[in-house]
Amino acid sequence: MKKVRVGYIPLSKHSFDIEWAKKISHITINELKKNKMIELIPVDIIFSDIEVISRICFLKEKSIDLLLIHFCTFCLGTIIPKIFNEINVPVILLAMPEPTFDGSRIRSNALCALNMNCHILHKMSIEYRAYFGSLDSLKLRTEIERTILAIYAIKNINNKRIGLIGSRAPGFYTSNYDELKLRKKFGVEIEHIDISKVYLIAEKVSNKEILREMNYLNKNIGRNNNVAEKDTIKLLKLYTAFKRIAYDLGFDAFAIKCWPEFHEDYGIAICPALGMLNSNDIMTSCEGDIYGVMTMIVQKSIAFSIPFFSDLVHIDESENSGIFWHCGSAPRELAKNKS
């Protein structure tokens, strides 16, 4: 998975508590580095307009996905326009509460800076998320991580190549999709592969490859399900063919028309092969569902685990529960005790 490249810009002004600004900037950087979704790219504290240009050039070279601007104290309102004249990425604004109120002069005035700069961005028609608080607050940290998670999901679906094997299943109009809209919005490329090509590749799979996959299955499934050997061999031929197509043509994922052709022409249900592809990090949906496999890619990126393409088949309102079911394409990693 690709990490979100987060540019971190701390802002301050010499007439406020500089040591405090440096301290909270250091603490914030350390907190952000704990997030496994991000690659943090920090710059030194900016105090004036003159320092902005070099910091911006550095961040542009790093091709950041998100900008986090931290008002460590009050700062000049001329800095933000300079930044956004050059950088066009989603932005988070963050300001910390005052360190103390002890009767002396204000040390930070960061909330004032946050308000003023929110107004500037609004007038510039730039969308932003603004937060006030410290990252040692679980609530605030969770809110910021949600924003990062959304960008993480988008980054990890951008420019994917999806192989559509066959088409959608008969009558499954919900699996229709807008190819050019997907290309425009996410850069997702879809290539159609005829099912007959899968048959041809499957029949060329060697006995050595079949034996290797068979040994792996026997070792890892841990259950005798009395499947006839000839059907297992057919299944493993198809699974190997799908993998070969993915690697040869550079597909990140598949949507496969799993019925009726494979049942009728090849003589087996291919559901376990789909589950095995998902276990092998090639996200694969059933029934030719392009939006389904895109959802799976997003789910994998934000949940850090393998998803299961399934149908909601029962709801019990009194128990606030439901049942999800599908033909047999679940990855083995989701099985209880690897049964």
Folded structure, characterized:
By secondary structure, this protein is an alpha/beta fold. It is 42% helix and 17% strand. It contains 12 helices and 11 strands. It has a 5-stranded parallel sheet with strand order 2-1-3-4-5, with helices on both faces. It has a 4-stranded parallel sheet with strand order 7-6-8-9. Strand 10 (311-316) and strand 11 form a beta hairpin. Helix 7 crosses helix 9. The longest helix is centred in the last third of the chain and has 21 residues, at 229-249. The protein starts with a strand and ends in a 14-residue tail after the last strand.
Order of helices and strands: EHEHEHEHEHEHEHHHEHHEHEE
Low-confidence stretches: none
Mean pLDDT: 92
Q: In total, how many beta strands?
A: 11
The general outline is elongated
| Biggest pleated sheet | 5 strands, parallel
The computed structural class is alpha/beta
Helix residue percentage: 40-55%
N-end to C-end Cα span: 28 Å
Beta-strand share of residues: 15-25%
The number of helical segments is 12
Alpha-carbon Rg, integer:
26 Å
Strand arrangement within the widest β-sheet reads 2-1-3-4-5
Task: Briefly summarize what is shown.
This protein is α/β, with parallel strands linked by helices and 339 residues long.
Descriptors:
about 40% helix; alpha/beta; single chain; four-stranded parallel sheet; elongated; five-stranded parallel sheet; about 350 residues
